[in-house]
Amino acid sequence: MKALKKYFFSGLIFVIPVSLSIWILFKIISFLDNIVGSFLKKYSPDFYTPGIGFFSLILIILLLGFLADNFLGKKLLNLFESPFERMPIINKIYVFIKSVSQSLLHGRTTAFKETVKIEFFSGTYTIGFITGESRLNDKEGFVSVFVPTVPNISTGFYLLVPENRIEKLNISVEEALKMVISAGIFEPKDASSKNRSDSTEKK
Q1: Could you tell me which of 174, 75, 176, 60 has the C-alpha nearest to residue 118?
Q2: Per residue in 149-166, is it b (16+ CB within 10 Å) or e — as a string?
Q3: Is the preceding omega at residue 162 within 30 degrees of 0, hence cis?
Q4: How far is the C-alpha of 84 from the C-alpha of 198, rounded, in Å?
Q5: Are 173 and 114 in contact (CB under 8 A)?
Q6: DSSP secondary structure, the chain, as one string
Q7: Domain-by-domain residue ranges, the chain?
Q8: Tens digits of residue pLDDT in 86-110
C-alpha cells in the first residue's frame, strides 16, 4: 500500500507541472490567436480556420521587427509610438513596459541602471532598481529606486534612499527582473554584493 501511495505521488509530481504547462501554453496560444482571429472571424469567416490568427500574428510581429531594423521603418513606427510617449500617465506606463521588455527580451535596459538591495521593512530587505540620483539637500545625496510589486511588475514603489543605505548587487538588471517576476524561484548564479553600505553595518 505504501508503494502504491509513493507511485501515485510520484506520478502527480510528473503530471501536474506537465499538464499545467500544456494548459498555460494552450491559453496563451488561444489568446494570441484571438487577437487577429477575432477580426478574421468577423470580417472574413470563410477564410478563418483555428490557428490562422496565431500564425498571422507571428507574421505581423516579424514584419514589425523588419521595419524596426531599417531607417524608414523605424521612422514610421516612431510616428505610431509618439502618442503613447506624449500622453500623461500613459507615457509613464508605456516607457516602463518598453524598458522591461527590452531588458527581458533584448538584454538591455534604458530605465534601470543598477540592481540594489535595500531595507524595505524593519529587518527585511528587497531588490530594487536604480533609476537615477536626486539631491534633496546639499548634505546628503539620495538615489531614486524603483521597487516592483510581484507578480505585476508594471506597478511598484518609488523610493528615495540615501546613498549610504543601499547595497549594490553584482547581478544584471535582466537577472534581477527574472528573480523578481519568479518571486525568488529563479536564483542568479552570482548575487554577491559589489559593495557593502551601512545598511549591513551595526547600528
Answers
A1: 176
A2: eeeebeebeebebeeeeb
A3: no
A4: 41
A5: yes
A6: -HHHHHHHHHHHHHHHHHHHHHHHHHHHHHHHHHHHHHHHHHH-TTT--TTHHHHHHHHHHHHHHHHHTSHHHHHHHHHHHHHHHHSTTHHHHHHHHHHHHHHHHHS--SS--EEEEEEEETTEEEEEEEEEEE-SSSS--EEEEEEE-SS-TTSEEEEEEEGGG-EEBSS-HHHHHHHHHTTTSS--S---BS---TTSS--
A7: 2-86, 90-203
A8: 888 777 777 767 766 666 665 555 5
Residue 113 C-alpha cell reads as: 541602471
Nine cell digits for residue 41: 472571424
Determine contact, residues 143/134, Cβ cutoff 8 Å: yes
pTM, 2 dp? 0.46
Residue written as cell 523610493?
159
